[in-house]
Amino acid sequence: MDKIRNTIAENLGGPFSKLGTSHFSLDECPDLTGKVGVITGGSQGIGFGVAYTLLKHNISKLYILSVSKDVIDGAKTVIADELGRDKANRIKWMQCDLSDWRRTKEVAEAIENDTDRIDILVNNSGRGIMNADVTDYGVDRHMAVNHMGHVVLTSYLLPLMKKTAGRGDIVRISNQSSNLHQGAPSDTKFASLDEINRDAGPNGQYGRSKLAGILYTRYFDRNVTQKGHPNLLMNATHPGFVSTKQSTQDIHEPYPVSGYVMSHGIEPLKKSQFEGAVPTVYAVTVTKKSGEWICAPATPETASAMAQDDDLMDNLMQLTRNLVREKTGGEAVVSI
Ligand SMILES: NC(=O)c1ccc[n+]([C@@H]2O[C@H](COP(=O)([O-])OP(=O)(O)OC[C@H]3O[C@@H](n4cnc5c(N)ncnc54)[C@H](OP(=O)(O)O)[C@@H]3O)[C@@H](O)[C@H]2O)c1
Questions:
Q1: Annotated domain spans of the chain
Q2: Predicted TM-score of the model (pTM)
Q3: For the structural domain made of 2-327, what CATH number should be given?
Q4: Which of 49, 104, 163, 249 has its CA 20 to 30 A from that of 242?
């Protein structure tokens, strides 16, 4: 019975979100005075809900990485109107398309030169359920943005995060995944570029990249947290079904007509962007654990069998390292 209640609470908004056995609300976010954070996709959707909450709870500086200037300008106006000009001025926006790994490295290095600490990294940006496409590097766009771009970003921020954690503070990283990781093709091996460039259909494309986010989380926990950095935590999150651009507009790219079921049909049941922000805020401000799959609101759950597969995890990270090095001509490398 608890499992059913938790599944409903995890995925749906409003009164449904209260049915679960675990509870966490954004009001429980601790005071973040003195902390510095980095968030991808913090300008709209769930990421905006997270950014707003971190600022509301006094984070000292927040780097937001995203694509569109118009969107971040709108976001800053809302923050200034609702939380005050001082909070809006704590945002430093950096344009960064995560499919461009050279640019991602450059942005990470600029952040490292601009701050002496990083306490929070939210890897949130994402390409939703959309058609297959490839980046300028010739790599599947879902994998390149949702997984590899975030691995590059994390790699280049890692020295400063290790330094921050080495001073005795807890540094927390979250990867925005989804329970739709279960839609990854069952023959996924992460064995080659050809394999990940094979069109798996909109759900399969998305699911594969979200599976990668959980595997990377477990890999980081095994190779970094458990290997001498106990204060440097990484967890993956599932926000539930949330009303955002992904679920109201982008879904119509692959599904022009049937997408209306998601964009309009189940709209009243979806979570708001703030409800969707809850597991991430928990993961980057409260948890003391690492390597977990945290479902809304703050419930560690067991992800799919593929997400537990250590061989798949090692293949994924080998492929990630190889592709980043090869496609950037060695200008960007993955350090773990
Ligand atoms: N909505 C849901 O029901 C749901 C469920 C499970 C998981 N998720 C995940 O939650 C995360 C946030 O999605 P959302 O629903 O809040 O969608 P959203 O409102 O469309 O926000 C997506 C964010 O990602 C940024 N972004 C997109 N492509 C990028 C790129 N190539 N490089 C850098 N940033 C990029 C966008 O930047 P701009 O603002 O500049 O456009 C935007 O800020 C995603 O990882 C998504 O897969 C969502």
A1: 2-327
A2: 0.97
A3: 3.40.50.720
A4: 104
